[in-house]
Amino acid sequence: MRAYLAAAALCAVACSRPEPPKITPHAARVQSVTPLGVGLALELDVENRNPFPLIVQEVSGTLKLGAGVEVGRARSEPKGNVPAKATTRVPATLDVPWTQLGALAPLAASGKPVPYTFDGTAKIGSTKLSFDVPFTVKGEITQAQAIQAGIRGLGGLIPGLK
């Protein structure tokens, strides 16, 4: 009977379903704002609750400004390794090309920092399974960065303006 109970307990542990990792954004920094887009540096704490290692294969998402105006999408392949039963900080750098540079102009003219939200998903897994784990990062683009991007963007459209 003891052997049966031990085997059943071992199977319960070994046969359990893999748990999706948990992502906690640690830091987000706007590296650049240009007429081409926004350079965003993220640091994500990835918690692996499984008894096997995982790999952060891809980070992707949508950048929204102000009250939720979508201004670009991006993806990165950080290739961070997350050991079994551990939490690892994984850096990801994303170059988000503008789909609506004009959305930045009214926000830049407000005289205040421009709030942003990056709604992302990290694809994390191994050779046999994969999880899509959502996360959200909030921050601000400084007024100086927003104005500089707007001026440079207009400079490319209006001859003689730099």
Task: Describe it.
The structure is a single chain. The protein is α+β, with helices and mostly antiparallel strands and 162 residues long. The chain has a single domain (18-157), classed as Immunoglobulin-like (Sandwich). Helix content is 21%, strand content 51%. It contains three helices and eight strands, in the order αββββββαββα. The strands form two sheets. Strands 3, 4, 5, 7 and 8 form a five-stranded antiparallel sheet that branches. A three-stranded antiparallel sheet has the order 1-2-6.
Sequence-ordered SSE layout with sheet pairings:
Elements: H1 2-14, E1 22-33, E2 37-48, E3 54-65, E4 69-76, E5 80-82, E6 86-97, H2 104-109, E7 114-125, E8 130-141, H3 143-157
* Number of beta strands: 8
Report the structural category: alpha+beta
Net shape = elongated
Mean pLDDT across the residues is 83
